[in-house]
């Protein structure tokens, strides 16, 4: 471990209880994406913390969400080289979940709704800056912190701001949870597509004139089989028919049916090909009409020369902290899928733990604090040539 590594280790060890206190204050604010009024207090907590660290904080209000916090250093100049640090404070958990999953610390584990995905990552941002200030370290590349409130529902309102900041950033760090209990860094993410297929048939009385009808449900069953055949697990391509519906009542040959499909692809080219195949599906039943809508909404976070360089720097800095970092691909999406279009991106730099979106959601405190040390070193790294 380097001398700076030891200094950071000592700082985060001394500040462990302060970290837990802030984490508890964030987790105890229940913030489901679709309840914008529930974010008032957590936005105040974060605004105050970033202001105390010398940041100008702008709350960009949302129309149907709680909006976004954009934190830039005081006296920030548009000509300044920047690094974007990105995360979200919305969760998948409804108000009242704390009654069933209360915040608690048990040895090296801390539990609670949203703690892993990804309120611990937000705490890491703040304490990395506290460490930089305490150790009186200068920053060559200005950090810009963007905290959103709609990531879990597709980032519809925050996407444009994410694009804007990523275009200006030399590099981007996404504080989403790490991958698996061993804490792999996410250097690749699959792209995510959402498609809706509507089938129209010909209704008729199921008892009097069944032969005059054309069942939209039978047509849909043919389509579902074709969708299943699009799966290519060896290439990392998955096509999941998540929901189906159709028909009016048992004694009517069904006039309408619908399928909603989730698609995951490792590359943009795979996404283009799967989209083409879905749009060209035929029901193989005369008298059926088929309508397909949808697209790949989150493009894949793919490896590039710049991303590889940023990963090698991350791994090297990890070694300075006695961390043997490993990389991996996530099947889930994040806002890193968006930033990667414009800025070299490292994702999964947040908490080490398990149980995202599950009742056993938890973080491992020592390992997560170690990742906060890593984030601090990344923020201190000089400007890069990509």
List the quaternary state of the chains. Answer: single chain
| Topology order in helix (H) and strand (E) letters | HHHEEEEEHEHEEEHEEHEHEHEEEH
Distance between the termini: 28 Å
Structural class call reads alpha/beta
Q: Beta-sheet strand percentage? A: 15-25%
Largest sheet: 6 strands, mixed
Number of helices: 10
Rg from C-alpha positions? 24 Å
Question: Can you give the mean pLDDT?
Answer: 96
Number of strands: 16
CA-based shape: elongated
Helix content: 25-40%
The neighbouring-strand order within the major sheet is 1-2-6-3-7-14
- Uncertain stretches: none
SSE map:
Layout: H1 3-14, H2 16-27, H3 40-52, E1 55-60, E2 68-73, E3 82-88, E4 104-106, E5 109-111, H4 115-134, E6 142-148, H5 159-168, E7 169-174, E8 185-189, E9 191-200, H6 216-228, E10 238-246, E11 256-265, H7 268-279, E12 289-298, H8 305-320, E13 327-330, H9 336-339, E14 345-346, E15 353-354, E16 362-364, H10 365-380
Parallel strand pairs: 3-6, 3-7, 7-14, 8-13
Antiparallel strand pairs: 1-2, 2-6, 4-5, 5-16, 9-11, 9-12, 10-11, 15-16
Descriptive overview:
The protein is an alpha/beta fold and 386 residues long. Helix content is 33%, strand content 24%. It has helices at residues 3-14, 16-27, 40-52, 115-134, 159-168, 216-228, 268-279, 305-320, 336-339, 365-380; strands spanning 55-60, 68-73, 82-88, 104-106, 109-111, 142-148, 169-174, 185-189, 191-200, 238-246, 256-265, 289-298, 327-330, 345-346, 353-354, 362-364. It has a six-stranded mixed sheet with strand order 1-2-6-3-7-14, with helices on both faces. A four-stranded antiparallel sheet has the order 4-5-16-15. Helix 1 (3-14) packs across helix 10 (365-380). The two termini are 28 Å apart.
């Amino acid at each position: 471990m380097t001398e700076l590594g030891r200094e950071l280790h000592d700082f985060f060890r001394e500040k462990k209880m302060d970290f837990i206190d802030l984490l508890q204050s964030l987790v105890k604010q229940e913030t489901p994406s679709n309840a914008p009024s529930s974010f008032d207090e957590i936005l105040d907590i974060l605004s105050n913390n970033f202001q105390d660290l010398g940041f100008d904080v702008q709350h960009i209000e949302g129309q149907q969400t709680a909006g976004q916090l954009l934190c830039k250093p005081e006296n920030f100049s548009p000509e300044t080289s920047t690094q974007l640090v990105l995360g979200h404070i919305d969760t998948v958990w409804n108000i009242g979940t704390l009654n069933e999953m209360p915040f608690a610390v048990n040895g090296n584990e801390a539990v609670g709704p949203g703690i892993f995905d990804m309120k611990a990552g937000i705490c890491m941002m703040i304490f990395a800056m506290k460490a930089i200030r305490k150790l009186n370290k200068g920053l060559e590349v200005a950090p810009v912190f963007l905290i959103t409130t709609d990531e879990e529902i597709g980032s519809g309102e925050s996407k444009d701001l994410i694009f804007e900041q990523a275009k200006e950033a030399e590099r981007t760090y996404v504080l989403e949870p790490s991958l698996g209990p061993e804490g792999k860094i996410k250097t690749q993410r699959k792209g995510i597509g959402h498609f809706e297929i509507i089938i129209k048939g010909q209704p008729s009385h199921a008892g009097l004139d069944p032969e005059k009808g054309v069942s939209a449900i039978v047509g849909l069953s043919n389509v579902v089989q074709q969708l299943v055949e699009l799966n290519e697990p060896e290439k990392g391509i998955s096509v999941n028919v998540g929901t189906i519906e159709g028909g009016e009542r048992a004694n009517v040959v069904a006039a309408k049916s619908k399928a909603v499909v989730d698609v995951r692809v490792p590359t943009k080219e795979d996404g283009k090909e799967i989209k083409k195949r879905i749009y060209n599906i035929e029901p193989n039943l005369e008298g059926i009409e088929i309508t397909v809508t949808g697209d790949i909404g989150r493009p894949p976070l793919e490896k590039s020369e710049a991303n590889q360089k940023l990963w090698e720097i991350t791994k090297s800095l990890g070694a300075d902290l006695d961390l043997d970092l490993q990389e991996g691909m996530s099947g889930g999406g994040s806002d890193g899928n968006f930033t990667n279009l414009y800025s070299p991106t490292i994702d999964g730099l947040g908490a080490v733990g398990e149980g995202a979106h599950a009742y056993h959601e938890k973080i491992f405190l020592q390992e997560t604090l170690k990742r906060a040390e890593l984030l601090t070193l990344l923020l201190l790294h000089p400007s890069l040539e990509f």
